[in-house]
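Amino acids appear as letters; backbone shape is given numerically. Here is one record.
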Amino acid sequence: MSLTLQKEKVGDVVVFRCQGRIVLGDEIRALHAAVAPTSCEARKVLLHLGDISFIDSAGIGALVRLLRDLRSHGCELNLCHLSEPVERVLRVTNLVGVLPCYATQEEAIRGSGGELQSAPVPAAHAKAKIVCADTSREVLEYVSALLKRSGYEVLASRHASDALTLVKVSSPHVVICGPGIQADGKTVQKMRESSPKARLIFLPPDFSASDAGDAGTNLVEQVRSMLASRP
């Protein structure tokens, strides 16, 4: 099922009732195209997600991107009526603390009462530093938010040359390369040479389209395992 959006105005709040799947491709492009411009007409945007049957990694990244874009224009984004698949993903990744989530539309409009509580941010491995690089903004938004909520310091770039500079100047413990950066073999090799002690993680080709909860928890466990095995 593709994504459908129904828009309504409640005072100075715009509500989008979302139905279907929030996934890589036309769905997240349609979501961004519909929601982003509303920062000009509303102080707050609500996404009613009770009828969302599936959300992938790119979908979560799209929500984080919308949050940042709307806030940059003085507009807030709240989520409400989370479906079971959406709530599961946000809880297992601890992104409930990043994306404001409410049980009902009324509470989301008020911005108080009924807000879902997040787990405490864990103490990371000696505040490890991680560089993330991929050409997809949604992948970077998701991975960055996920790792920051796991207690790590995160630097990110969509451009190979900028990512290489980050690796050179920051001496990261871990470098995460998305599929878009992996295709640039010369840059990946230069990253290895610039920071030989850094561990490299290559995101799988289907990371964007994978179940966001599974992909996210697997990545965090991989990072923790690598850091725990450092000499």
